């Protein structure tokens, strides 16, 4: 409960009332600035066994060293397991079931490595580091020379109290454990990057003479069967359907699916604006990479009236009558054209591989001379 006191309610600047049994504090009075409550103080410090018994302190030190040493051994074991254990190895773990033993080995060794550092740091703090509670009185933020000297003295005292100057084995073991723990973090990051792609970014599976096969049926395409406005989704011969998985394996077949896919469209030759587009096509039939030059989505939506190709991911739009140049959206390059011709049986075949890398841009893409003599 509060009571008014000459129109003042509590301390100056305070929005709270003054308790009835405590004198009101007025600015300028001699009681202003004094503590409202008595300092309760701190309980007396109770020393630990390691503080008074050198043998207990030495025993605690060895325990911390063992924990840090266990962490270091586990970090080295992680590196050994990373190279020694087969990444495809599988086994049965009680309570979990069948699992990948490579992942299990890496998880256990990394866990032990981190656990050793954590337990060692906690045990060190609880047995050897100073545990006295202290009170720091409030003071102005600007420190004088005397205060700075006092801080330096306190830091020096803390260094000596932590016994690092007397127990270098602790410092060495902690540094070793922390340094080696970087291996389980850095090694998978660096080694997991894999080999550099080198020429793989410049090459597809298209070769001169390969037939254009409808995806996914695998049927070849006759030029006579392609009517104006027709759209075919194409893969190279030998890389479509079950044949690709049986002959090349699932991984290579999926890689081919991501970079070799082509869209085949027949346009009115009079609408084609690019001479190169006419030369690389056949009677108005043109073939372009389906891999968007923005982030690699399949460009598969063809608008017959406007002759525009639309990427469904980010709406990049390409004009098929003008060499598939970008007319809208975030893509920065036109879709690469696949040169085509017709073989003796009337089937559409590749006249040459792509003359430029397909898909999104990369740093070294514009370097000359990487596509061989066919580029000329």
Task: Provide a descriptive summary of the structure in words.
- By secondary structure, the protein is an alpha+beta fold.
- 34% of the residues lie in helices and 12% in strands.
- The chain has nine helices and twelve strands.
- Strands 3-4-5-6 form a four-stranded antiparallel beta sheet.
- A hairpin with a 5-residue loop joins strand 9 and strand 10.
- Helix 2 runs antiparallel to helix 3, helix 2 packs parallel to helix 5 and helix 2 packs parallel to helix 6.
- The longest helix has 31 residues.
- The chain is elongated.
Radius of gyration over all CA atoms, rounded: 38 Å
What is the helix fraction of residues, given as a range?
A: 25-40%
Number of strands: 12
State the major sheet.
Answer: 4 strands, antiparallel
List the SSEs and their pairings:
Elements: H1 49-52, H2 54-84, E1 90-93, E2 97-100, H3 101-127, H4 145-161, H5 168-180, H6 182-191, E3 212-214, E4 231-236, H7 241-248, H8 250-259, E5 262-266, H9 275-280, E6 285-289, E7 301-303, E8 308-310, E9 317-319, E10 325-328, E11 340-342, E12 348-350
Antiparallel strand pairs: 1-2, 3-4, 4-5, 5-6, 7-8, 8-9, 9-10, 11-12
Helix pairs in contact: 2-3, 2-5, 2-6, 7-8
